Amino acid sequence: QVCAQLCRRPCYCPWVPPRCPRGSPLVLDGCGCCKICARRLGEPCDFLHVCDQSQGLVCDYSAAPAGTGATCNFEDSEEGCEVNGRVYRDGEVFQPSCKLQCRCLDGGFICVPLCQENVRLPTPDCPYPRRVEVPGKCCPEWICEARDGHLLRDARAVSPPLPYPCQEWGTEWSACSATCGVGFSTRISNQNHYCRLETQRRLCMARPCPALPAA
Predict the structure, then answer these.
(1) Which of 65, 120, 203, 215 has the fewest CB atoms within 10 Å, measured from its CB?
(2) What phi, psi does 51 have (nearest 5°)?
(3) 59 forms bridges with which residues in the sheet?
(4) Residues 159-213: pLDDT tens digits?
(5) Per the similarity annotation, which family is this (predicted)?
């Protein structure tokens, strides 16, 4: 039995298929010969290195008239965004976690927190409010240690300012929640008055959003 393939060059496949990054399935190359990782949105492509058709992507040669420099794009030229290996269409609303709701917009995405970011100040009946994670609930809730005498005594033992320098500790600031325009980033740090670990937030802007086309 003789088999033939119409391909621009001979096929030499590795014995072990490649390990693909998250969101990139294992597919046959353009010759239908070797298993390769499908290219994702915005990645370079050609006749051999095909795009992920399950996400509606095709190899776009519009910006490469000479046949070089093509990239994977949506078939209908509609812009989208990729988050955690999944591609969303322009205008699509999604939730990467229970605490965030995001919207794909012009190739990027913007997110808003679903949990209230209110700050509870100390009061006479609740001198040491504390925000804790509640099992079975996504958003943390405030509790008042003053309601329990034992907890109140413990809180008073650690709440006054420390008489010695605090050994500062903190994680790096996370990536900005918006790819363009104003967003927010978070980190865990103990750089506060009581040297306690807490989640801190700050505004950020990766780059300005492109101006909308004139009507």
Answers:
(1) 215
(2) -90, 165
(3) 72
(4) 455 555 677 777 888 888 888 888 888 888 877 777 777 888 888 877 778 766 6
(5) Belongs to the CCN family.
Query: DSSP code of 146?
Result: G
- Closest Cα to residue 52, out of 20, 92, 25, 81? 25
Q: Tell me the CB-side half-sphere exposure of residue 178, using CA atoms within 13 A.
A: 19
Amino acid making up residue 68: T
In the chain, where are the structural domains located? Answer: 26-74, 81-113, 119-145, 169-208
SS3 72: strand
Dihedral through CA 140, CA 146, CA 151, CA 157, nearest 10? Answer: 110
Q: How far is CA 124 from the centre of its chain?
A: 41
Closest Cα to residue 200, out of 215, 181, 180, 186?
A: 186
Q: Which of 202, 139, 131 is nearest to 173 (CA)?
A: 202
Is the pLDDT at 147 greater than 60? The verdict is no
**Alpha-carbon distance 201 to 208, whole Å?**
20
Q: State phi, psi for 146 to the nearest 5 degrees.
A: -70, -15
What is the H or E stretch that residue 152 is in? helix 149-158
Structure tokens at 127: 């001198």
- In b/e form, how buried is each residue of 162-187, taking b as 16+ CB within 10 angstroms? eeeeeeeeeeeeeebbbbbbebbbbe
Write the CATH number of the domain with boundaries 169-208: 2.20.100.10
Give the fold, CATH level 3, of 81-113: Complement Module; domain 1 (2.10.70)
